[in-house]
Design a protein that fits this description.
Helices cover 70% and strands 0% of the residues. It is an all-alpha fold and 175 residues long. The chain has one domain. The termini are far apart.
């Protein structure tokens, strides 16, 4: 795992400034606003990864074989799954013991930020003067695993915030 920042300081600052301060969640509105900002920030970073992958498909379409194109499509689909999980709405309610839940959320947030950083570095390594076959051999599977782990961490975070998948059926309507 990456241990020091390899993406730009403005990118890291943008994301870290939007990290929620869970102990300051005093109302539903404050919690929803903080969550929305943080989730959008993570989504924007992942969107950049997806956009880069799409650009590679367009620019190198004659250089990539069918398997590589399918793999990139699968990576983009995985990013789409993460977006759906980041878009989860509902009443934010920390589950269990608030102090323990906040500690878990803060740990997850650090892991998510490191995962975003690592994903951005790997995606940016595809393109330019790096041959696609070398990238697929060395980094593609790791990126796929990292995105799957990111998706799982996002779902774990949703659960800790009381935004399990069942919130999709009760938010804004009658339960």
């Amino acid at each position: 795992m990456v241990t020091s920042a390899q993406i730009s300081c403005p990118e890291m600052t943008f994301l870290m400034e939007r990290m929620p301060q869970y102990s300051q969640y005093r109302s539903d509105e404050e919690a929803a606003l903080a969550e929305r900002g943080y989730r959008r920030a993570m989504g924007l970073m992942l969107k950049e990864c997806g956009d880069h992958l799409l650009n590679v498909l367009e620019k190198k379409s004659t250089l990539l074989d069918t398997d590589h194109e399918r793999f990139i499509d699968a990576l983009i689909d995985r990013i789409g799954m993460i977006f759906r999980r980041l878009d989860r709405e509902g009443h934010v309610c920390l589950v269990g013991d608030c102090h323990a839940t906040i500690a878990e959320l803060e740990e997850l947030d650090i892991r998510l930020i490191l995962a975003i950083e690592e994903a951005m570095v790997m995606v940016r390594n595809l393109g330019g003067d790096v041959p696609a076959s070398s990238w697929f051999k060395n980094e593609a599977n790791r990126l796929s695993r990292d995105l799957a782990a990111f998706s799982e961490m996002t779902e774990e975070r949703n659960y800790l915030l009381g935004l399990g998948w069942e919130s999709e059926f009760t938010y804004g309507g009658s339960a």
